[in-house]
Amino acid sequence: MEKALQLANSYPVWIFAAIVIGIVIFQAIVFIRLATRTSQNVGMTKQEVQSALKVGAINAIGPAMASLIIAISLMTFLGNPVTFMRSVVIGSSATESAGANLAATAFGTELGSDGFNEQAYTTIVWTLCLGGLGWLLVTVFFTKSLGKMQEKISSQQGSKRGSLMAIISSAAMLGVFGNFGSAELLKGVTNAVVIITAALFMFILLIIANKFKLNWLKEWSLGFSILAALSVGFFII
């Protein structure tokens, strides 16, 4: 185990991890710049772009905190550079944790055990990298095609098609979050109370924001709802 951790935190691993992390940061900066430049073509003002970026950053706090907790536990077994690199590329520490456990079991050992050597560590790293390759390839080969399809649908028959795309996008988001929410509701009374608390808190905040025209409250509504739900789950239940 000790030799595996020495390899995991060695300078060569840090160098490769830093390269990957740097590429991800560069991509994020490029995407933000491209979105800002093309915002006027879709009728967005500078204030709306800034508000969208702020909402995205705030909404990422909750999932990021959950991933951070799992990532900290993974650092004990996989070292800092690989854990940091995989969390940056994939963004789901829970998926990486499951992949690491499966790879260790397939090798014939367990994370943190005496049999966890350099070969087991290498097996886990290859498993995690190859396991995350699928959706990265889908992004590379199909993102442009999906964008062209969206433009084609939106351009046909004027605003009706544009409204159709808005309906499809909203329905997809409702379906995704509805699926996540319903799965948590079925886990027990505690989870159900937390979900209902978050939904009610969000509903109340949006009513207040619309009534008093508080745009900043809309931006922070998800963050406040997450804090309210966490508080109820931790202090009351």
TrEMBL record:
Keyword Protease: no
Keyword Amino-acid biosynthesis part of the UniProt annotation: no
Xref: InterPro entries: DUF5058
Listed name of the protein: DUF5058 family protein
TM stretches of this protein: 12-35, 56-78, 124-143, 164-183, 189-208, 220-236
Record key words, sorted: Membrane, Transmembrane, Transmembrane helix
Matching Pfam families: DUF5058 (PF16481)
